[in-house]
TrEMBL record, chain A:
Pfam families: ABC_tran. Keywords: ATP-binding, Cell membrane, Membrane, Nucleotide-binding, Repeat, Translocase, Transport. Residues 26-261, 270-514 form the ABC transporter domain. InterPro entries: AAA+_ATPase, ABC_carbohydrate_import_ATPase, ABC_transporter-like_ATP-bd, ABC_transporter-like_CS, P-loop_NTPase. Residues 1-12 have a biased composition (Basic and acidic residues). One of its GO terms (cellular component) is plasma membrane. The keyword Translocase applies. CDD domains: ABC_Carb_Monos_I, ABC_Carb_Monos_II. Its main location: membrane. This is Monosaccharide ABC transporter ATP-binding protein, CUT2 family (TC 3.A.1.2.-). Transmembrane segments: none annotated. Residues 1-20 are annotated as: Disordered. It is found in: Cell membrane.
From TrEMBL, chain B:
Keywords: Cell membrane, Membrane, Transmembrane, Transmembrane helix. The chain crosses the membrane at residues 21-42, 54-72, 79-97, 103-125, 132-151, 171-191, 222-240, 301-320. It is a multi-pass membrane protein. Its main location: membrane. The keyword Membrane applies. It comes from Goodfellowiella coeruleoviolacea. Pfam families: BPD_transp_2. GO terms for cellular component: plasma membrane. This is Ribose transport system permease protein.
Amino acid sequence: MTELPAEQRRGPGGDAGAGQAAGELLRVEGITKRFTGALALDGVDFQVRAGEVHVLLGENGAGKSTLVKVLAGVHNPDRGTVHVDGKPVRITSPQHARALGIAVIYQELTLVPELTVAENLFLGRQPRRFGLVDKARVRRDSVALLERVGLRVDPATPVKQLGIAQQQMVEIARALDLNARVLVLDEPTAVLTDTETERLLTIMGELRDQGVGLVFITHHLEEIRRIADRITVLRDGRSVGVLPAGSSVEAMIELMVGRAIEDQYPRRAGEPGEVLLSIDGLTRKGVFSDVSLRVRAGEVVGIAGLVGAGRTEVVRAAFGVDHYDSGTVTVAGERLPGGDVRAAMRAGLGLVPEDRKGQGLVLSSSVGENLGLVTMRAATRAGFVDRAGQRRRAEEMAAALRVKTSGLNQTVRELSGGNQQKLVIGKWLLADPKVLVLDEPTRGVDVGAKVEIYELVNRMTASGRGVLLVSSDLPEVIGMSDRVVVMAHGRVAGELSTEGLTQDQVMALAVQEPQQQAAEREQPQQQAAGD
Amino acid sequence: MTSPATSTRTSRGPGFALGRFLSNNGALAGLVVLAVALSILSPSFLSTRNLLNVGVQAAVVAVLAFGVTFVIVAGGIDLSVGSVAALSGMVGAWLATTAGLPGVVALLLGLATGAAAGLVNGLLVSFGRLPAFIATLAMLSIARGLTLVVSQGSPVATPDVISALGANLGPYLPVPLLVMLLFFVIASVVLNRTYTGRAMYAIGGNEEAARLSGINVRGQQLAIYALSGLFAAVAGMLLAGRLSSAGPQAANGYELDAIAAVVIGGASLSGGVGRASGTLIGALVLAVLRNGLNLLGVSPFWQQVVIGVVIALAVLLDTLRRRGR
Ligand SMILES: Nc1ncnc2c1ncn2[C@@H]1O[C@H](COP(=O)(O)OP(=O)(O)OP(=O)(O)O)[C@@H](O)[C@H]1O
Ligand SMILES: [Mg+2]
């Protein structure tokens, strides 16, 4: 081997670390992590450079969050090395990771619901004066941070009063304030709508320009196309390749799932039948007003809108979780009493809630138990649950949704985020209600599994059921619904047929201001379709 | 569902399986260690008579603790079980001895008293929206007070049916031991097979998710606390039967032993986790420990200290084990 001149041996940045590429902040080699029942990471190599967005891509359960938790000091890897700034380190705790300049936004929210937004933002690191928390400063700094992420809420609001998207923005704001050198974002956009995602991507771009190294996980491949500098693809705990910036969606899918996906939104609409769900003039003061919509047998009706448009609030009220002040909800001809979940269920309504951890799953229970939660009543004779039947049905559903688990007895807490989400849908699909309301059903689900869920939706409508689909994922709402109701500021802004519908048309209605809505109501609605 | 690759990788040797079993059953491992140590330290520990004695000692706490397991799995707490046990035993004894009702009727009414007290707990928690800690603390006081009122402060002799619960079947077999095993089976069946049992796990694990899945959370809570009251009443009968008299201060402080047994058995005080077998082992650990300390001649004052330390250690080890994953 010939000696190279000194200038050439050095990287462009004048970097001299042994084997270290230019501007490399973080490097892991051969990371292996085994849990009882699963090998989550199997010899993964991964680097993060200053000023890049490095995307981690992979199916549900591929090991992305596990890798993130190794970097965050939550998990101790069984094998492999971690280098920060070219120096080998063992990251022993989240605090240690912080001290090394690594900040993490986890897939599951970590805010304390009882505390206020400001308190959460400065949890454990409140600015102090004379030994006491400097409240004035906390407030001032909170306002600035919230401004940065574009969240318009009073910092004194308790976090539990915020919607899940708003909570996510608080998480992001908190992480931004840590001035990290490596910022890891585990599916931050799963719960965000386009507007907020846009904002987050802009912020990420700015941080990249400031030389921060970003690790970004998402199942929205369009976002990857927009921001990724490199894409590391994981499959079954192994790194199966690194794609360059600008890779096509097809290339990503191919490498991720090992096959091509023909149609991402395989909706097969039939001829709609009689009205199954009818919401008329539903109003809850200060939250939503005069909301009316219908779902017919065999139909998928979408509800689109910005965060805070009142979509979730409407479907929760219809299902009887929350109260409403006036209006009616009728399921298959039966008027619901309101505020009574079990009455709604008996009439044939079901709801897959948006917040899987808070409302959807019993994390401490097993996969089988969770899948059987809704059908348990029907499977009970004389107080005893038909466990064999419940097990068999759970097996089938877990297989149909390809839930990655070591078995029906595995605790749900140990499942990856996307696989947990599949269970929330699965337990309701098993109950097979006349009308199923899906509130953000595919949050955190990978592209392949989404198609499987859509096929199950098709199967429901083909057998004469109706589906009401609330989703912030516009391509999904447009691709899977037969018509879309757009909500803005707690009202129905319009209803659109999805034939040839574009995202811009939906957004135009979704961003309508209240005065504009009032004006349009004066004139006959020309956009109403489908009904 | 599992990719074949992962399932083949998980098979290990039998040593690993045993290690895993014991680490998942810390309380059982503790019980075994305790028993081995005591059989070395004290020759009389392993005698049939002493072991049966331990079983009898464990029975009252175990039956109480099975009831408390239901409540704790469902995310609540029941501090009233000791007092409810005393009240039920007292009502049973008083109805037979003082009011002259037939023994069996008195026994059944005593049991009904316990269930009713539990039902009131359930009403306060589910419809009254009181924190379980407060509601059952109030019941602790009310039930003890009522016991004193009924007994007028002095013990009441029990009728034969109740006394029989504390006696031996044949030359050896103590009835309390049989009752304990019977209620262990009942508690296991309730927890594992019945709708109410499965609802306990769902409600304790995530009440909101349970409600949104169509579980009648309030109705189930009534049933759960009533069951706890009923089990407490059974324990009260056992205790009264053993002494052939219901005392106004019977089972004083037993709620703490019952809760300790549940927690040593691996249940989580935040709900959603717990098993009848764990609770049984927890109750046995406490009984073996007390028995052993007696055999070794440790003063009752120090026994209190040791038992407190053991409870703290059991829970500490459990938390460490969970965190280590
Ligand atoms: N604490 C745990 N105990 C046991 N198994 C676990 C644990 N955490 C993760 N796993 C398993 O490790 C595998 C990888 O999980 P991980 O959460 O890293 O997936 P992921 O790539 O983030 O998936 P998703 O896209 O669904 O979020 C899964 O099979 C999961 O069940
Ligand atoms: Mg994940």
